Amino acid sequence: MSNVRALLQNAAVYSVSNILNAVIPFLLLPILTRVLPPSEYGVIAMFTATLGIMGAFTGLSVHGAVNVRYVDRDKIDFPRYVGSCLWVLLSSTFITLAVVTVFLAPLSKFAAVPPFWLLIAVLVSCCNFLNQIRLGIWMMASRPALYGAFQVAQSAVNMGLSLVFVLIMHQGYAGRLWGLTLATVLFATSGVVSLAKAGWVRFCPHLEYMRETLSFGLPLVPHVLGIFLMGVVDRFVINQKFGLGQAGIYMVAVQLSLGMSVVADAFNKAFVPWLYSLLNNDDLVSKHRLVRGTWIYFLIALGIAGTVALLSHWIIYIVAGAKYVGAAGALSGLAFGQAFGGMYLMVTNYIFYARKTRPLAMVTFVSGVLGFGLLWVLIPLLGIAGAGLANAITMFVRFLLTWALAQRVCPMPWLSFGKIEVKTQAI
């Protein structure tokens, strides 16, 4: 019972910090949509989409390797392991930067992002991974207060700088991008410094640790690319079909739908350390209770999605204004996509625990290819609403495939509905 109480307490702290973290850019949204035309908001949308594809190459998911190895920190030289992960991160970032520099002109034209900001995207992507490592260690150490303070402070600085650049200095879309960039770099720097001061990192690379990190991260490249195809490439397709204006309108729906992921992500952050500990103990009764709670979680997620879909028009009108109400149809589909995304988080943890990332990468990549195909079919038929529908279908397929894979690598009593616990109590 004490473990459950601790889980709920940590989840509450993560939820509050995630809500505050989401509220800050959410407050920025109605300001930007009323100051910037959809075409300029579209540039912001394409920049953030570009960050999604950069993440497949600049970081190689090193933060995930750190989180998994934290459980075995007493058996290895963990600070040196973290330092080795940082060397992998920096190396992959320089390689990515070199490739982007060589193909800067065509990449800029395709992404609809100015060349200067395309290069900046590589830097921001690298700093995002540095922040994820800092946050991940706090998460695994069950320090939600520090996690939340860092996260909320970064968003507050991001918002403050963006408002100064956009409203006072009249920098347009560039002001928003400068706010994002400076805040990310500042907190990445402070995060690395805090890791060093706390003794969590030694900048002395270890070849075996680097090989282990690569063996964890490289199979996840298709996984990250699949996530890009599922959740980011839609903006590229919309831009190609309808232009930056429609991409900007669609981005409003995306940002509003992300509100659903706030609670799911917060619960998952508190859930992961507890889940890994429970799986190590291999207790059947606890596993059964976990499964029962997960089914309830699924029902709640779908209920919230249905409510958002019903109120989508009014949500867009109130938050973003009349010129963005065309995003309502997309928001309906994206809401269910977010629900399936939260359900996916509840089952994918078992795969990371089992360290079977290679088949997970294939599941995500296949789902992403399916989503990409659906985009090209549904967007011409339904406009940006088709992108929302494609997202919902793709996320649902990914959830089902991931759930099946999780059951294969880490079996759980998903269909027992109380039989294991009743039998154990009878004995």
From TrEMBL:
Membrane topology: Multi-pass membrane protein
Main location: membrane
Pfam family, one: Polysacc_synt
Sequence intervals crossing the membrane: 12-32, 44-66, 78-104, 116-133, 145-169, 175-196, 216-238, 244-267, 295-318, 324-347, 359-379, 385-406
Organism of derivation: Geomobilimonas luticola
Protein name, entry field: Flippase
Compartments, record wording: Cell membrane
Cited InterPro entries: Poly_Biosynth_Transport, Polysacc_synth
Transmembrane helix listed as a keyword: yes
Top-level division of the source organism's lineage: Bacteria
Keywords: Cell membrane, Membrane, Transmembrane, Transmembrane helix
